[in-house]
């Protein structure tokens, strides 16, 4: 067994802010894109989830047996694989309904709009899948072209959560800061994500996209 406190490098009495800060640093170091490994990355994520689910008395709740977080076996994943919960929305729907990426209640509106299952829904992505792979492996046909960070055909807009972005990508800093990411080589670094996919239709991404090729699904 390994203590989640040790994994994150925080003291046993670390508060929520300390845990959050430590997690943000450790998850970057542990990510395969930055020299870590998938095993280390998953371990850090499980440690964070364990500590963030403590109740106010510092008792773990995810074990449902009241065990202290220091005793949780991090070699076993409590939810069967550390899946990342992704809620998604097709950008084309925004145009149809007159919604905006900046709408605070965009996903609430989508959840009430009776949209098709390819337009709005939820899927589980495994930690070793890119967001695009996760969508494809669950049967969704999200757009892509190069699959290598050299275009913006696979771009998504992050409404919530974080997606890694390798150094050799084409996304300009200004767009990355606004929340645009590439789904073909972006791996979730948060347990939950809300993303708008198919944003390649946005004018600001026009110069980055590639024309449809033999490997482009849509
Ligand atoms: S498909 Fe070209 S960057 Fe993702």
Written account of the structure:
The structure is a single chain. The chain has 218 residues and is of the alpha+beta class. Helices cover 28% and strands 13% of the residues. It has a five-stranded mixed sheet with strand order 2-1-5-3-4. Helix 2 runs antiparallel to helix 3. The longest helix is centred in the first third of the chain and has 15 residues, at 16-30. It is globular, with a radius of gyration of 19 Å. The model is unreliable at 59-67 and 76-80 (pLDDT under 50). Residues 144-147, 149-151, 153-154, 182, 184 line the site of FE2/S2 (inorganic) cluster (FES).
Question: SSE layout and pairings?
Answer:
Elements (H helix, E strand, L loop, with lengths): L3 H5 L7 H15 L7 H15 L31 E7 H7 L8 H6 L8 E6 L5 H7 L17 E6 L12 H6 L1 E3 L9 E6 L21
Parallel strand pairs: 1-5
Antiparallel strand pairs: 1-2, 3-4, 3-5
CATH hierarchy: architecture of the largest domain: Roll
Shape: globular
Task: Tell me the name of the CATH class of the largest domain.
Answer: Alpha Beta
CATH superfamily of the largest domain: Beta-grasp domain
Beta-strand portion reads 5-15%
- Helix and strand composition category: alpha+beta
CATH fold type of the largest domain: Ubiquitin-like (UB roll)
* N-C termini distance: 47 Å
Spatial strand sequence of the major β-sheet: 2-1-5-3-4
Continuous helix count: 7
Report low-confidence residues grouped into runs of 5 or more: 59-67, 76-80
The hetero molecules present are: FE2/S2 (inorganic) cluster
What is the alpha-carbon Rg in Å? 19 Å
Protein name: Ferredoxin Fer
Family: Belongs to the 2Fe2S plant-type ferredoxin family.
Cofactor: [2Fe-2S] cluster
Domain 2Fe-2S ferredoxin-type: 111-201
